[in-house]
């Protein structure tokens, strides 16, 4: 309005009206400028790390232009927005992905090549941001990539942990956890936003009082206030001008310094209290399967949920003449697992207490805006917080939850009378320690609830939340629970991780359209028997294996035969994922080789078995399994009879960047969870997209991958989900027999063949084996909870079939092409389109190139 101001703005606008140019020379100039003026290096004296940082800033400039213009466009179009709330994002390295998605591969390559640098070397300088545990966190990251690529107005919200997933060191075969202070040198891709902060209250009490309108109300007062400060991470889409945002919150002390405390005696206490506030976002809990009822964890959850909801509501009320009734037309929120489900109560609190929306209307808005994804059927992973703890920390929320539950139970009793279904559906779990069930709160407060693969969604309906499902059906809403089969982004997992394969697809299909429409890959099927393609395909695998060999040499000083079949199992270490069974099989294979004459051995397929993954630090058995794998590997790899034919190695510190090297190189990967335990799995999809075949159980997304790719592309074994209960019941009575080959493996372990000179390890390994065999104490059976003994024989058969099939190179190659070309369903572009259509009602809003 002010003419003076206007003139200044126009001047600035003129100066900034064009984007940073993207020709190689301009990129070089930007690079030199950042080296000198942002990093204070000279152009003649800088390290590769400096070069990486400067290149990162070159990209950041371009990301910011796109992010700002995309935001302006979304505002102008007044679009409905989606918000993904997740305590974890396993984003992995930014640089290569940003270059690809900004369509800068060619000019960047040229620019840096001319300066005597290889892009690959720059990429290696980046530490992996590992703000997640495993599949759930990586899924969130793939989702962000697809939301941007589909030009959907969707943001992610999460926590900017100072320490991400621990680094795994292996010492004497055992896992040792090291802190991952990933942010130590700063990350050139993030944008700190000291101007965007929200207060978050913890503890305190609720008082009756009057609101601004003079009406009776409840006020939450006292306690501690922390500030949540925003750090923005631009997420560029591929083949679109849209760039979305991942906004991560860091906990900071409140800005105001309590003057009373500012006396000589209390000064240090006051500073200490402020420092403590920062603990909130200090560290990611490295537990991926069972929650620990730690108070700090609940604080983290509330902290990021409150800041995110405040932020998205602020965006909503910025709109001129907003009406609360329009909220569901403008906002959809997705809660990633139960971790952010305190959002149900916080949304109510913000609407009722802060925005003065009447209770009933607020509840209607809440249940229209929020949605919940379940990622697990393991009962030990469903979060339940003690009422006592939550009442201390979030007194107002417990009141709100109490009121919601009262109304909910009254309605249920009116419908069903007072029976067991009431206790099952209550948000509160009675018992010695009264608890709040976050799963129940989430389902009640959500518009849609989803599982992550077809089988998993059925299990949720029938076993995890059967009473809710009954209620949904009884109230005419059976489709409140829907399936959203997971996916992965082909940009990172094919194009960036496996450039040779990406080039083959683009060449045979005549364009790179497949990268945004994976159904195009079907066009490869007509070449699946083409010898020319076979040659290129095998060359592609060779290239990937060569890279893997370099990686293994560097990290483990391990030499591998690049003609060997590469067999990989990489995922969190867990009994249900059965790395133990894989290891037992390798021992069996070793024993078979040992029995053979040298001439017989010649005929055996060479194999390199790689197992990698982190164990939760308190998970004793998972850590023992790591030790066993390492010890078995040591024996096998150093045995001159077998060393050339069979290798077993534990890959330390498995992480996104390691996956990018491992996955393209695999011939076979293992997805061998007990049927009904793995909700989906997502690395299975990455492997197949890269032309690897799967040894797997009929579990999670394996079932759907097999459906898409054809039965002949997968080596299936093990019992089926519906058989598990019967097998477990029978096992309780006595036990199914232990296969003689497995007996021999157990015997070798008990004889100490893999624990020579290590009495402690010997006792530990025996305890693992004993547990599996400990089945005869009637009624106490759970030793083989995951049916390792039961499924072992069919696992051995499946592995034999792998060897036999691999012997026919042309057949293998055909199956590999067939499988990789049939993976359209498992692109997160498909998954996210479904979320956008079925759950969020969010539409694409591609922004034009120039605004
Ligand atoms: O989520 C995983 C499931 O185990 C996989 O089957 C599935 O594919 C992916 C994605 O849907 N779950 C997790 O990764 N869970 C966690 O990481 C986690 C983290 C903290 C607390 C509890 C679980």
TrEMBL record:
<dbReference type="GO" id="GO:0030170">
    <property type="term" value="F:pyridoxal phosphate binding"/>
</dbReference>
<keyword id="KW-0328">Glycosyltransferase</keyword>
<keyword id="KW-0863">Zinc-finger</keyword>
<keyword id="KW-0808">Transferase</keyword>
<comment type="function">
    <text>Allosteric enzyme that catalyzes the rate-limiting step in glycogen catabolism, the phosphorolytic cleavage of glycogen to produce glucose-1-phosphate, and plays a central role in maintaining cellular and organismal glucose homeostasis.</text>
</comment>
<dbReference type="GO" id="GO:0005980">
    <property type="term" value="P:glycogen catabolic process"/>
</dbReference>
<keyword id="KW-0119">Carbohydrate metabolism</keyword>
<dbReference type="GO" id="GO:0008184">
    <property type="term" value="F:glycogen phosphorylase activity"/>
</dbReference>
<dbReference type="GO" id="GO:0008270">
    <property type="term" value="F:zinc ion binding"/>
</dbReference>
<keyword id="KW-0663">Pyridoxal phosphate</keyword>
<dbReference type="GO" id="GO:0005737">
    <property type="term" value="C:cytoplasm"/>
</dbReference>
<keyword id="KW-0479">Metal-binding</keyword>
<keyword id="KW-0862">Zinc</keyword>
<keyword id="KW-0021">Allosteric enzyme</keyword>
<protein>
    <recommendedName>
        <fullName>Alpha-1,4 glucan phosphorylase</fullName>
        <ecNumber>2.4.1.1</ecNumber>
    </recommendedName>
</protein>
<comment type="similarity">
    <text>Belongs to the glycogen phosphorylase family.</text>
</comment>
């Amino acid at each position: 309005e002010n003419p003076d101001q206007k003139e200044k703005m126009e001047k600035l606008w003129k100066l900034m009206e064009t984007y940073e140019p993207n020709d190689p020379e301009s990129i070089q100039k930007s690079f030199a400028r950042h080296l000198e003026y942002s990093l204070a290096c000279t152009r003649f004296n800088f390290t590769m790390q400096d070069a990486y940082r400067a290149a990162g800033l070159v990209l950041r400039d371009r990301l910011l232009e796109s992010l700002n213009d995309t935001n302006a466009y979304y505002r102008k179009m007044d679009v409905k927005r989606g918000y993904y709330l997740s305590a974890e994002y396993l984003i992995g390295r930014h640089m290569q992905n940003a270059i690809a998605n900004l369509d800068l591969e060619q000019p960047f390559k040229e620019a840096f090549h001319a300066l005597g640098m290889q892009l690959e070397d720059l990429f290696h300088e980046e530490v992996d941001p590992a703000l997640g545990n495993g599949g759930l966190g990586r899924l969130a990251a793939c989702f962000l990539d697809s939301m941007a690529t589909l030009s959907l107005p969707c943001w992610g919200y999460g926590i900017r942990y100072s320490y991400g997933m621990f680094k795994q060191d292996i010492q004497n075969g055992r896992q040792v956890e090291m802190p991952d202070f990933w942010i130590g040198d700063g990350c050139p891709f993030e944008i700190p936003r000291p101007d965007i902060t929200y207060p978050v209250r913890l503890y305190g009490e609720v008082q009756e009082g009057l609101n601004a309108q003079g009406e009776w109300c409840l006020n939450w007062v006292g306690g501690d206030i922390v500030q949540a400060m925003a750090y923005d991470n631009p997420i560029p889409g591929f083949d679109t001008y849209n760039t979305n945002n991942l906004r991560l919150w860091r906990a900071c002390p409140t800005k105001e310094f309590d003057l009373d405390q500012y006396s000589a005696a209390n000064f240090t206490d006051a500073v200490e209290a402020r420092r403590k506030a920062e603990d909130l976002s200090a560290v990611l809990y490295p537990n991926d399967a069972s929650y620990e009822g730690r108070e700090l964890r609940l604080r983290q959850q509330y902290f990021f949920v409150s800041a995110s909801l405040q932020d998205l509501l602020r965006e909503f009320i910025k709109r001129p003449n907003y009406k609360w009734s329009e909220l569901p037309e403008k906002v959809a929120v997705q809660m990633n697992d139960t971790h952010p489900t305190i959002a149900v109560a916080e949304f109510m609190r913000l609407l009722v207490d802060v925005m003065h929306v009447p209770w009933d209307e607020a509840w209607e808005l809440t249940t229209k805006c929020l949605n919940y994804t379940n990622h697990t059927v393991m009962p030990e992973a469903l979060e339940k917080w003690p009422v006592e703890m939550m009442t201390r920390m979030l007194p107002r929320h417990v009141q709100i939850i109490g009121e919601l539950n009262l109304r909910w139970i009254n309605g249920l009793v009116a419908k069903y009378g007072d029976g067991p279904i009431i206790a099952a559906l209550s948000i509160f779990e009675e018992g010695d320690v009264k608890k709040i069930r976050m799963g129940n709160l989430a389902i009640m407060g959500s518009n849609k609830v989803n599982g992550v693969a077809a089988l998993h969604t059925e299990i949720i309906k029938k076993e995890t939340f059967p009473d809710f499902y009954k209620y949904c059906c009884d109230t005419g809403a059976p489709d409140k629970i829907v399936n959203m089969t997971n996916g992965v982004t082909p940009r990172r997992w094919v194009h960036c991780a496996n450039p040779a394969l990406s080039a083959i697809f683009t060449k045979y299909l005549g364009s790179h359209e497949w990268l945004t429409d994976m159904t195009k890959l079907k066009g490869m099927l007509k070449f699946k028997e083409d010898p020319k393609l076979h040659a290129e395909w095998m060359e592609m695998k060779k290239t990937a294996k060569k890279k893997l060999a370099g990686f293994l040499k560097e990290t483990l000083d391990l030499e591998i035969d690049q003609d060997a079949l590469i067999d990989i199992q990489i995922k969190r270490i867990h009994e249900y994922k059965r790395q133990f069974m894989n290891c037992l099989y390798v021992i069996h294979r070793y024993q078979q080789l040992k029995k053979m004459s040298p001439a017989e051995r010649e005929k055996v397929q060479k194999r390199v078995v790689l197992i990698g993954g982190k164990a939760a630090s308190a998970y004793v058995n998972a850590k023992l399994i790591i030790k066993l794998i390492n010890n078995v590997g040591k024996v096998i790899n150093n045995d001159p009879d077998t060393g050339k034919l069979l290798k077993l190695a534990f890959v330390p510190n498995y992480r996104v960047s390691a996956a990018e090297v491992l996955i393209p190189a695999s011939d076979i990967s293992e997805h061998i969870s007990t049927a009904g335990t793995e909700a989906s799995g997502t690395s299975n999809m990455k492997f197949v997209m890269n032309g690897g075949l799967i040894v797997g159980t009929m579990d999670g997304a394996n079932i759907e991958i097999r459906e898409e790719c054809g039965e002949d592309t997968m080596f299936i074994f093990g019992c089926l989900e519906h058989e598990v209960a019967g097998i477990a019941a029978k096992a309780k009575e006595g036990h199914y027999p232990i296969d003689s080959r497995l007996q021999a493996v157990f015997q070798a372990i008990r004889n100490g063949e893999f624990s020579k000179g290590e009495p402690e390890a010997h006792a530990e390994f025996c305890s693992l084996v004993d547990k599996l065999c400990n089945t005869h104490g009637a009624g106490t059976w759970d030793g083989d909870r995951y049916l390792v003994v039961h499924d072992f024989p069919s696992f051995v058969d499946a592995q034999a079939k792998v060897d036999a099939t691999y012997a026919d190179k042309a057949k293998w190659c055909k199956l590999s092409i067939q499988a990789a070309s049939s993976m359209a369903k498992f692109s997160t572009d498909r998954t996210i389109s479904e979320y956008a259509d079925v759950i969020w009602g969010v539409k694409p809003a591609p922004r034009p190139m120039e605004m």
